[in-house]
Amino acid sequence: MDYEKLLSDSAKKMRPSGIRKFFDLVAEMPDCISLGVGEPDFQTPWDIRDMAIHSLELGRTKYTANSGLKELRTEIGNYLKRKYNMEYGVDELLVTVGGSEAIDLAIRALIEPGDEVIIPEPCYVSYEPITTLTEGVPVPVPTKEEDDFRVTAEAIKNAITDKTKILVLPFPNNPTGAVLRHQDLVEIADVLRDKDIVILSDEIYSELKYDQKHESIATIEGMREKTIVINGFSKTFSMTGWRLGYAAGPKPLIQVMTKIHQSCIMAAPTTSQYAAITALRDCDEDVEEMRRQYDMRRKYCVRKLNEMGLKTFEPMGAFYVFPNIQSSGLSSDEFCEQLLEKKKVAIIPGTAFGASGEGFARISYAYSIDHLREAMKRIKEFLSELKGENTDE
Amino acid sequence: MNDMDLLRLLADDPRATVTELADILGEEENTVRNKKRELEKKKVICGYHTVINWDKTNEDHVDAMIGVSAKPERGKGYDKIASRIARFPEVSSLYLMSGTSEFMVNINARTMREVADFVGEKLAPIDGITATVTMFVLKKYKVNGITMDMEAEVEDDRLPVSA
């Protein structure tokens, strides 16, 4: 069999995840201290797990409606209203297998060969390959350290062409921890107001914000009709393994996404959906406690990294810090590989999240403070040994 | 320094040293030491406790909870009776309750005999106490937020690297 000949060109063209390479390196070093995860360290709050068990005891083991339990969609609508003052009815919501399925559906529902997708980078790793798979054209827009990694309306404006169909807006951002302010949203909205461009607003980290409450671009005047909001349960409620997310948007878009979802997924996992109702209704305090813990770790990491000479801007969202490692004289890849090799600490090169991540690295603080202290100690040692070597030369 | 940050850290780990706390909070060790002393003096921090599962030792150990019915004293309410009960070293905690009896008294002793003697000779004779109901603890599942003898939840089983 000539598999190469059989496999589709667009699938072959998908760039392998930059994370993957590093994953393989780390897998060979089982006793390393990892700061490489993209998921919370907390257990899912017990009330949520308890409801899942209860739903199984009652025998709720069948498919749900394609778009998800109506009760869950109603609760998502209530939650979005309560938290962010957004209004979505049950037919404007689709329950998906994680936020990542929602990203896939949105891109596939909209993109034809040659259509352009503007992707602010560094960013989460799936927008680009999915765009490539649909034969769309990814248009990366680098965000900059001097802008605190916020994407500017100006940069978006410059990237827009006649072929632009989607603007991905991934904030709070993985890997930088950057957030957009009200003023940023207003300026971006002004650029898009008279254009037929859909905003794919990935707000999966919306509850992990440390300065002020999250604001969605969908609530800026005129933007609701252009925006597909993606959110989910993985980060907020520490439910990554439950595989549950959702999309909220204008009915004509959600309908087509639901059609694709019907064919490839059928419906999101039933047990997870029942558990998610409890998450939305009863777990505000659990989320608040997790945020408090993250916030303490965040401040700790930012301070430690700056003290040891790695310039690190203070991120206001998600659970990552994104230090500038250029003072080491190494590239992102070299820095991370050597740190792993010499001090057995795993962090992710910024380049795994787009070319503009060169010179930076992602450190996740979804770990206990003791774990972080040990890791910071080792990074500091690594840097002073590096300095020692440089002076020797 | 935010008092709550320090208190949360100590609630999580009462053994944390001043050096560790200062490092986590980004404060001088002296600042943390003084703040900790101040909170202890004000009785915001009332103590640092070790939770021991005595069942796993060879020591004899019996815990009991005693519901105590009492009549309040004119002008003093229940406080005077409470202070009399609380002074016995066998009493590990004492609460004024709603419900059928006025107080709930927790006793740590070595044998059931000791508990019986405590109730009969020390507790019941106190003026104002009208009845006691003694309940022996058979097995402890959770003490002060710490589970005992239960199947442990998984340790960190996340993939070491993920997007």
Descriptive account of the structure:
- The complex is a heterodimer of chains A (393) and B (163).
- Chain A has 393 residues and is an alpha/beta fold.
- Chain A contains 14 helices and 12 strands.
- Chain A has a 7-stranded mixed sheet, sandwiched between helices. A 3-stranded antiparallel sheet of chain A has the order 9-12-11.
- The longest helix of chain A has 24 residues, at 284-307.
- The N and C termini of chain A lie far apart (54 Å).
- Chain B has 163 residues and is α+β, with helices and mostly antiparallel strands.
- Chain B has 2 domains: 3-41; 54-140, Alpha-Beta Plaits.
- Helices cover 31% and strands 21% of the residues of chain B.
- Chain B has 5 helices and 6 strands.
- The model of chain B has no long low-confidence stretch (mean pLDDT 93).
- Chains A and B meet through helix 3 and helix 12 of A and helix 1 and helix 2 of B.
Uncertain residue segments of chain B:
none
Strand content of chain A: 5-15%
Q: pLDDT average of chain B, as an integer?
A: 93
Quaternary structure classification: heterodimer
**Widest β-sheet, arrangement of strands of chain B:** 2-3-1-4
State Rg of chain A. Answer: 21 Å
Second-tier CATH architecture of the largest domain in chain A: 3-Layer(aba) Sandwich
Question: Concise description?
Answer:
Helix content of chain A is 44%, strand content 12%. Chain A is an alpha/beta fold.
Any descriptors?
heterodimer; A: 393 residues; alpha/beta; Aspartate Aminotransferase, domain 1; Aspartate Aminotransferase, domain 2; 2 domains; seven-stranded mixed β-sheet; three-stranded antiparallel β-sheet; 14 helices; 12% strand; globular; B: 163 residues; alpha+beta; Alpha-Beta Plaits; four-stranded antiparallel β-sheet; two-stranded antiparallel ribbon; 31% helix
SSE blueprint:
The complex is a heterodimer of chains A (393) and B (163).
Chain A: H1 3-6, H2 9-13, H3 18-27, E1 33-34, H4 46-57, H5 70-84, E2 93-96, H6 98-110, E3 116-121, H7 127-133, E4 137-142, H8 153-159, E5 164-169, H9 182-192, E6 198-202, E7 227-232, E8 245-248, H10 251-264, H11 270-282, H12 284-307, E9 320-321, H13 332-343, E10 345-346, E11 348-349, E12 361-364, H14 369-392
Parallel strand pairs in A: 1-10, 3-4, 3-5, 5-6, 6-7
Antiparallel strand pairs in A: 2-8, 7-8, 9-12, 11-12
Helix pairs in contact in A: 4-11, 5-11, 6-10, 8-9, 12-14
Chain B: H1 3-12, H2 18-25, H3 29-41, E1 62-70, H4 79-86, E2 91-96, E3 103-109, H5 112-123, E4 129-136, E5 142-143, E6 146-147
Antiparallel strand pairs in B: 1-3, 1-4, 2-3, 5-6
